[in-house]
Specification:
alpha+beta, Alpha-Beta Plaits, 3 domains, 12 helices
Length: 475
């Protein structure tokens, strides 16, 4: 039963007692006889029934209602006394007051307990709200930590991917791919390699639907390159480091960005960047992750460059920069097979420096090295893309001309010979005109066997030397 229902019942009882008692005692139907004990007893019952009405009124109506019932009870007793002359009624008024006082004490104590309970409930409610907010904060923190754990766990995959890749172009693509995957933010990812000699940026890889207009980077990329620092801009129109006028066309097309340099040793080797058309798209945590990816990417790029240099050393002569003999033989085998399949021409030029021993004897072996480098540079400058120039041994240089007939090969050999002769070299302050002799062989005109191509070219080389040097021999 609810508190409201109880109040209705107690209120109804109180009013019923007052009304019934008053009606019965004050109507002509009731005749009081002071000499009859039964009449006296009934009068006393009526009078004392008001005490019950007072008690019920405190339970039902509170202070104002109980005081009204108390006063009404006193008035009814006084009216009864006036009507019937019931002696001692004034003394019976005292229990009404006592009952009302006790009711007041009870009501006051109940209100005190109610207020105390209400305050405690409010305090509990506040504690519940605080606890609920704390729980939500903890949930958000846990969610944030879980997201960070996922991101940092993905960095292990980045390390594994970078470690397994030694091709520079593939490493550049991996840097962009992993950046987009780990940050998982909307926008565009760009990676620029740095030309360390010219200190210029060159776009190497990108990801995003937006077209990259600045292939050499913009002011933000150059700021990171110059200052060797990471950069986060939440709103490009409100950043104090860049004026609105300098932003120009970027305003509207770009809202926020993060940029970080890839540093190896004391050099910046790349710039990694993400940008978005929306403002406040990136956080400091995003920038920290970008820094980590950049550090890992810098190591991967250094490994790729080191691998490329190692590969280069394996196929390049350290003195002249030309391919080594072993690499040339391997490529000759491949190109002869390819020429056989595609039915195309191929030619070999065997070149030797005339009187090379005289230069060593006259100026020393260091001078001989200078001559070799000069010949290598001059011959290489006269070849086309796809041709292979190698140091075959000592002062001999061999050239493979892919897709060229014998007539074209002879013409190119003559051009090389003339270029060498017409470019004197200074040796110990003396201008010396170097000459070379060249032997030419052709596939399939002379042979279809790669070993015979080299042998025939070599024989014709010595035939050119025997014929007076500084000439080309093709038959």
């Amino acid at each position: 039963m609810t508190l409201f229902s109880k109040r209705i019942i107690f209120g109804a009882l109180s009013i019923a007692i007052i009304v019934l008692s008053a009606l019965f005692s004050l109507t002509p139907l009731y005749q009081y006889d002071p000499h009859q004990s039964s009449s006296q007893n009934f009068a006393f019952v009526l009078i004392f029934s008001y005490n019950a009405a007072i008690i019920f009124s405190w339970l039902a109506f509170g202070l104002s209602g109980a005081m009204a019932v108390t006063i009404l009870s006193i008035m009814l007793v006084l009216l009864l006394n006036l009507k019937v002359g019931f002696s001692g009624s004034y003394i019976l008024i005292l229990p009404y007051l006592a009952t009302s006082y006790l009711g007041y004490r009870w009501w006051n104590r109940k209100n005190g307990l109610y207020n105390t309970c209400r305050l405690k409930i409010e305090k509990v409610g506040e504690d519940i709200i605080v606890l609920s907010n704390s729980i939500n904060d903890k949930k958000n923190t846990v969610s944030s930590v879980e997201e960070k754990l996922k991101r940092y766990a993905a960095l292990k995959e980045v390390i594994d991917s970078f470690s397994a890749q030694l091709e520079l172009d593939e490493v550049n693509k991996l840097i962009i791919e992993k950046t987009v995957k780990i940050l998982a933010k909307p926008g565009r990812a760009l990676f620029f390699m740095v030309d360390t000699e010219k200190q210029e940026l060159i776009l190497s890889a990108s990801r995003g639907e937006e077209r990259v207009e600045a292939k050499r980077g913009d002011m933000f990329d150059h700021w990171a390159l110059k200052n060797r620092k990471s950069l986060i801009i939440e709103d490009i129109t409100a950043d104090f480091r860049f004026s609105v006028d300098s932003i120009g066309d970027l305003k509207g097309a770009m809202g926020s960005l993060i940029v970080t340099p890839l540093i190896s040793g004391d050099k910046v080797i790349g710039i990694l960047r993400m940008d978005s058309a929306k403002e406040h798209a990136y956080t400091q945590d995003d920038l920290r992750l970008l820094d980590i990816i950049a550090d890992l990417g810098a190591v991967a790029i250094e490994n790729a460059l080191l691998y490329a240099r190692t590969q280069e050393l394996a196929i390049r002569d350290s003195l002249t920069g030309l391919a080594v003999r072993r690499y040339f033989i391997e490529r000759l085998d491949e190109e002869v097979k390819r020429a056989a399949i595609k039915k195309r021409k191929l030619a070999i030029l065997m070149l030797d420096i005339d009187h090379f021993k005289d230069y060593n004897d006259k100026f020393g072996h260091a001078t001989g090295d200078i001559v070799l480098r000069h010949i290598a540079k001059t011959v290489s400058s006269k070849t086309s893309e796809g041709d292979i120039v190698a140091r075959y041994g000592g002062e001999e240089v061999v050239v493979m001309l892919c897709g060229k007939s014998k007539i074209d090969a002879v013409a190119e050999a003559e051009e090389m010979r003339s270029a060498v002769k017409d470019s004197p070299i200074s040796l110990r302050r003396h201008a010396e005109n170097i000459t070379v002799s060249i032997g030419v062989s052709s596939y399939p005109d002379d042979t279809v066997i790669e070993e015979d191509l080299i042998r025939i070219a070599d024989e014709r080389l010595y035939k050119a030397k025997a014929g007076g040097r500084d000439r080309v021999c093709s038959s």
